[in-house]
Amino acid sequence: MKFIHPKPGVLMKGAAVTLALLVALAGRAAAQGANEPVILLSPDSMWKQKHNLRICADPQNMPFTNTKREGFDNRIADLIARELGDSVSYAWWPSRRGYLRNTLNAGKCDLVIGVPVGFDPVATSKPYYRSTYYIVSRTDKKLGITTLDDPRLKKLRIGVNLLDGDYTNTPPAHALSAHGITGPGVVGFAGFYDDEHHPGEIIDSLAKGNIDVALVWGPLAGWFAKQSGVPMTMTALPDSDSADLPFAYSVAIGTRRADRELRSLIDEILVKKKPEIDKILMEYNVPTVGTTR
After folding, report:
1. How far is the C-alpha of 76 from the C-alpha of 247, rounded, in Å?
2. 3 within domain boundaries
């Protein structure tokens, strides 16, 4: 499938895959992560006593996490720690290639918050939310686009987060190509933070009228749309639009496979604290779909 090239200056650097986009790339990312050995380090018995709850996280990845602990996953980590009677510390590492190798598998932390259910390199908990990709447009434009089959898309300027090549591209980028929507009308935007770019640029561009439509992973779309101050209309992409990759994913917490007791405790907390978790997600304007599974 042809890779859709972004305009100069917005293509991401390197062959990295962000943890945020792992949520949207479960199948593809799992294949990459499988190259990192899964190390069984901590015995279950360590969780019978209170201790420091160590979280693996990206230091600059809003609205998920940052070093100021302002993200919704930071808030959920605090909630889990309170239930366990533990304090929280972080092993910070940019969510790029090698993320798990340098954090969870190196024994520097015990939980990875925000991975797709079934993500192969780790064992995953019960999901704590389910979201999808959204078609986002300015409300004042009244476009009313609900599917990638809409013929107007071939004439509009469409923003999409892109990675480094077709094999690791995002589901909307693959779907656009499958629908014959390519060329200069498709504008690529960064999917992770670096010195020059950040994921919110796609919504910034939409707010300024530089693009007409954006296809964005739900938590990013909801957060940055809220931050923009411009009324946005968000419509969930139906999974039927993508034959190879679904758009909707259930999101969970990852542990080492050996940490069965910890994972069981996390499952219990996620069920018990679901109303509080849902409230946190609402505060960050995270759109959810269907039921978690």
Report:
1. 24
2. no
Q: Is residue 199 part of a domain?
A: yes
Counting DSSP H helices and E strands in the chain, the numbers are 9, 13
Contact 235, 135 (CB under 8 A): yes
The CA distance from 171 to 153, in Å, is: 17
3 state SS of 200: coil
Domain that holds residue 236: 133-241
Asked, for residue 265, whether it belongs to a domain, the answer is yes
CATH number where 97 lies: 3.40.190.10
Cβ atoms within 10 Å, residue 50:
11
Peptide bond between residue 6 and the one before it cis (omega within 30 degrees of 0): no
| pTM score | 0.83
| Integer Cα distance of 191 and 173 in angstroms | 12
Question: At residue 13, what are phi and psi to the nearest 5 degrees?
Answer: -90, 140
Query: Across the 293 residues of the chain, what is the mean pLDDT of every consecutive 10-residue run?
Result: 32 30 40 42 51 92 96 97 92 88 94 93 96 97 94 95 64 89 89 81 96 96 95 89 75 95 96 97 94 59
Instruction: Take residue 291 and report the two structure tokens written for it.
Output: 């039921």
Instruction: Output the CA–CA distances (angstroms, integers) from residue 243 to 100, 120, 175, 238, 239, in the order listed.
Output: 29, 21, 8, 11, 8
**Contact yes or no for 117/124 (Cβ under 8 A):** yes
